[in-house]
Design goal:
20 helices, mainly alpha, two-stranded antiparallel ribbon, globular
Length: 483
Amino acid sequence: MAAEPRFRNDADAAGEADAAGEADTAGDGRKHPVDATLPPLKMFTSGLQHVAAMYAGVVAPPLIVGPAVGLTAEETAFLMGASLFTAGIATLLQTIGFWRVGARLPFVNGVSFAGVAPMIAIGKDRGHDGIAVIFGAIIVASVLGFVLAPYFCKLVRFFPPVVTGTVITLIGVSLLPVAFTWSQGGDSTAPDFGSMTNIAMAAVTLVIVLALRRLLRGFLQQIAILLGLVVGTLIAIPVGITDFGAVRDAGILGFPTPFAFGAPQFEIAAIISMSIVMLVCMTESTADMLALGKIVGRPADEKVIEGGLRADTLGSAVSPLFNGFMCSAFAQNIGLVAMTRVRSRFVVATGGVILILLGLIPVAASVIALVPLPVLGGAGIVLFGTVAASGIQTLATAALEKGENALIVAASVGIGLIPIAAPRFYHAFPADLLVVLDSGISTGCVVAIVLNLAFNHIGRGPGPEQPEGADHVVPAAAGVGVH
């Protein structure tokens, strides 16, 4: 077993008691909180909160890729609706699942940012042909990923606390710049980007969320993020940063016509590029599943990770049929689970249904889009910071005072922060390498795994001198204080 933390506190004890209690209730036939259902109203509002947290992340990639490949504004809007629709399908595959598909955790899936740069390189100024080539490459890469899932999941033994804690921390820290960009307005070319008005709205929303979490109790406390977004949006209306244009122009009903841009086309270079992206997504999803499994008290073993990776890759393979892009885990929603303590996968499945409906009812999607990015950014600081805090608490169980574990964390976090602290650090490297190098989560994860192997596995026997926690995946008992 992994070592117990040197310092224990009441939160740790409570987490262990919860874990032990959950293990006991399994014999009584009672459901684990992950498998529990909530009353309909709570299910809907909690699911809507997940949608609100990830909405901007879903529509941003098609909003960037569409104009880059030469699509019109109407065609780009169609891509955005299709991305919402396919994100809903992928989320249902992940939360409900079937056969050996799905992690069956409260795991949100959506369009991966990792593929944006390669997709632009593949389809730039090629119009519908460019989109068709992108879709063809995604289909092939996703099928390959589905085949590799049973083998890729075996890497879980190389994710002990020193690795998982590092990766979870990097997930949170890597997402914070997104929240900061949203807080400034989202569009760096806009005249009001970084204005005092935008940043003040983000700060107001942040204070509202924190106040609601402090003052409210029970269910209202759990949906503090959603309430904060609503209040922040209402305040933003008289301030003048809420855009109602999307609501006025949206249609009532719409369906993402299969292969609306033509049959998929297959080019070797594009397939290789998107296959690399798929490996990056699988690496990040593995880390995300380990983080989420720890947070909800159901550790992600090889079987869970295999199912989760199959859901990722199957969702990505189906996505181009409805004009969507590659799907992967959304780490920001892990922060929402940690903060609200709502662990039911059926809540996230409800969010998946909402996403599908938003894809079919453009006018409903436009209502969600009313939330100004500065408001979303203020809430995002709390969400993403919660993920980083969970990673730090995981590192507290990694026996950093023994062996070279502290060195592993130092090097991995340092290298993982390069794309954040120095975005142009790798500008002279080949474009294909940038798919991996520009993701601090991926580079930090790879470095942590390699260094853990070098210092804690290779050339060492299982003797007592081996650092505690070096060989083991984080147990449920070593929670992050959110059970």
